[in-house]
Design brief:
- This protein is α+β, with helices and mostly antiparallel strands.
- It has helices at 30-37, 54-71, 119-134, 149-157, 182-187, and strands spanning 15-16, 20-23, 75-80, 83-98, 101-110, 139-144, 161-166, 175-181.
- A hairpin with a 3-residue loop joins strand 1 (15-16) and strand 2 (20-23).
- It is globular.
C-alpha cells in the first residue's frame, strides 16, 4: 500500500518588493536559466555546483517547481519592476541538504548586469521576512566558498554569521556555512540593502 501523498501547497502568484518582481519558476524559464549558468562570471565561484547541459538544468528547474508545489514557497524567478518580462536571475529559500547538513538554504544567481545594486539582498530580506515572520522557521543557512568575497560580504550584510564549514560543500573546496537565526533576525534593524561591488 502506497504512502498517502502530502496535499499540494498553493503556489502564489508574483510578489513585489520595492524594486523587484518575484514569481515561482516555470518550464518556460529553462533557456534563461541555461544562459545564466553559461556565463562564466556567474559560475566563477560555483562551477562544481552548477548543472551542465539542458537535461541537468531542466531537472534542477523542475525540482524548484516541485518544492513550490509541496511547500508553497521556494526559489523565485526574479525580474526588476520596471522590466517585469526580463528576468535578472533566480533565488530564494529551499529546504535541502548540502554535504550532510540539512536546512533552509538561501540561494541566488543574478546576471552580472544587475550586480552591485543590492538586488540580491532585497530579495533575501523579503525571503527572510516570509521564513521568520510568516512560517516561524528557526534559522536560514547559506553555503559559500571561502574565496567568494562578494557573496560573503552580502551574507554578512544581511546578518548571517559564520557557523562552521561543510567538508564537501558546493564547489571544489570546503564551503563555509553561514546562519541567520530567527532571534537574530528579530533584533536586526530593517535597513535598505547595501550595494556590494562585484568584480567580474
Amino acid at each position: 500500500m502506497s504512502e498517502p501523498r502530502e496535499p499540494a501547497a498553493a503556489v502564489p502568484a508574483a510578489m513585489v518588493t520595492r524594486r523587484l518582481v518575484l514569481r515561482p519558476p516555470r518550464d518556460s524559464d529553462l533557456d534563461t536559466l541555461m544562459a545564466l549558468y553559461a556565463d562564466p562570471a556567474v559560475t566563477r565561484f560555483c562551477a562544481a555546483a552548477t548543472p551542465h547541459g539542458r537535461d541537468a538544468t531542466q531537472s534542477q528547474l523542475r525540482a524548484w517547481m516541485a518544492h513550490w508545489e509541496q511547500r508553497g514557497f521556494g526559489h523565485w524567478a526574479i525580474a526588476e519592476r520596471d522590466q517585469p518580462d526580463g528576468l535578472i536571475g533566480f533565488g530564494g529559500l529551499m529546504h535541502r541538504s548540502v554535504a550532510g547538513h540539512a536546512g533552509l538554504y538561501l540561494y541566488y544567481r543574478i546576471t552580472p548586469q544587475a550586480w552591485g545594486r543590492g538586488l540580491a539582498s532585497e530579495m533575501a530580506q523579503y525571503a527572510f521576512a516570509q521564513a521568520f515572520e510568516q512560517r516561524q522557521e528557526p534559522a536560514v543557512v547559506a553555503a559559500v566558498l571561502p574565496n567568494n568575497a562578494p557573496t560573503r560580504k552580502t551574507l554578512e550584510g544581511l546578518g548571517l554569521r559564520p557557523k562552521g564549514t561543510l567538508a564537501d560543500g558546493p564547489g571544489s573546496a570546503a564551503a563555509l556555512l553561514y546562519e541567520l537565526t530567527a532571534d537574530r533576525w528579530a533584533a536586526l534593524p530593517r535597513v535598505e540593502p547595501e550595494a556590494v561591488a562585484f568584480a567580474a
